Amino acid sequence: MLLLGMNLKEKPTCFGCQRKSFSKRTQSLSRSSATSGKSPNCKNKTHSSIAYFFGNGSDEVIDLLIRVFCEPRVDHIITVPPTYGMYQVSASIADVEIKQILLTSDFQPNVEEILQTANAQSKILFLCHPNNPTGNALDAQAVTRLIKGFPGIVVVDEAYIDFAASSFLSLVPHHSNLVIMQTFSKAWGLAAIRLGMGFASLEVIHYLNKVKPPYNINILTQQAVLQALEKEEQQHEWVKIITAERDRLTQFLPHFEFVEQVYPSDTNFLLVKVQQPDHLYEYLVQQKIIVRNRSKVPLCEGCLRITIGTKEENTRLLVALKGYQ
Ligand SMILES: Cc1ncc(COP(=O)(O)O)c(C=O)c1O
């Protein structure tokens, strides 16, 4: 039996190259003349008040933002766990302190506590919309209040935005402290080529370019992205299929006795609370189905994170779960 990886957060491999509405965004952004980015063949041009930047995955954007804006052992970043782990990893490598303020019980940022904690040394607040690993979209009012009230840069990581209803990208021209990150790694299934984007004011992008190694978006990555961008309709179809499958699993999973809660998701994965997460995780491994055990993560106690696969893969998961009952 084939090993089924429902732990990786990417689109299923059998779907082929996907495309997202990024091309529309780049077209509309390429009207003005200023350029950003260091790769000679990447025409990452800028709008008058939005610039964009290509990184080796959005992980590189995270790393560069911390190195640009934070002074080691003096400044700190704020993260809102449970969330994506690389904010913490990159800050630790840069010797930058991390202040953590838990999400509320409905997985929203605790605006009051964040703003009370923030001071002149709070250089970056990392938000993830929709959030990994909880899957939910962030409340627009809460995010806007944070952008307005936070003294430093507010990063909204939109790695899963293709599966969500709305983006915060349109706020960039209005807030010089806002950075939006997106990536080709998730809905496009192109994690291996390493291409992430940061959208921000010209000034922020200018500083990122100052520390970016020259020519580090290689030609093979550029070619792969351009090929992917030729298939926009296919991309929309895949996203539709995945969201339909997400809805199918969301409806089906609560029928199992051992499933306590399926959290609403705006991503291509589901956070599922079950009775004995470690036991169920091991059972699925025996069935050659790999999910992510998040049960030790604060606020995710008892939870497994399941990435949505193809219709056949999801059906295989459901059949395996039936055997577990
Ligand atoms: C929320 C989030 N942001 C960023 C990334 C990293 O994306 P990239 O492959 O573009 O570095 C991930 C990957 O898992 C993620 O979950």
Can I get a quick summary?
The protein has 325 residues and is of the alpha/beta class.
Describe this structure in words.
The protein has about 325 residues and is an alpha/beta fold. It has two domains: about 5-10 and about 230-325, Aspartate Aminotransferase, domain 1 (Alpha-Beta Complex), CATH 3.90.1150.10; about 20-230, Type I PLP-dependent aspartate aminotransferase-like (Major domain) (Aspartate Aminotransferase, domain 2). It is built from ten helices and 13 strands. A seven-stranded mixed beta sheet has the order 2-8-7-6-5-3-4, sandwiched between helices. It has a four-stranded antiparallel beta sheet with strand order 9-10-13-12, with helices on one face. A hairpin with a 6-residue loop joins strand 9 (about 260) and strand 10. Helix 2 crosses helix 3 (about 85-95). Residues about 15-45 have low confidence and may be disordered. The site of pyridoxal-5'-phosphate has 13 residues, from helix 2.
Shape: globular
CATH architecture of the largest domain: 3-Layer(aba) Sandwich
Cα gyration radius (Å): 20 Å
Uncertain runs? 13-47
Give the number of domains: 2
Could you state the CATH homologous superfamily of the largest domain? Type I PLP-dependent aspartate aminotransferase-like (Major domain)
CATH structural fold name of the largest domain: Aspartate Aminotransferase, domain 2
In DSSP terms, counting alpha (H) and pi (I) runs of 4 or more, how many helices? 10
Structural class: alpha/beta
* H and E string: EHEHEHEHEHEEEHHHEEHEEEH
Approximate strand percentage: 15-25%
Percentage of residues assigned to helices: 25-40%
Number of DSSP E strands: 13
Q: What would the average pLDDT be, to the nearest integer?
A: 89
Main pleated sheet? 7 strands, mixed
Spatial ordering of strands, largest sheet: 2-8-7-6-5-3-4
| CATH level 1 name of the largest domain | Alpha Beta
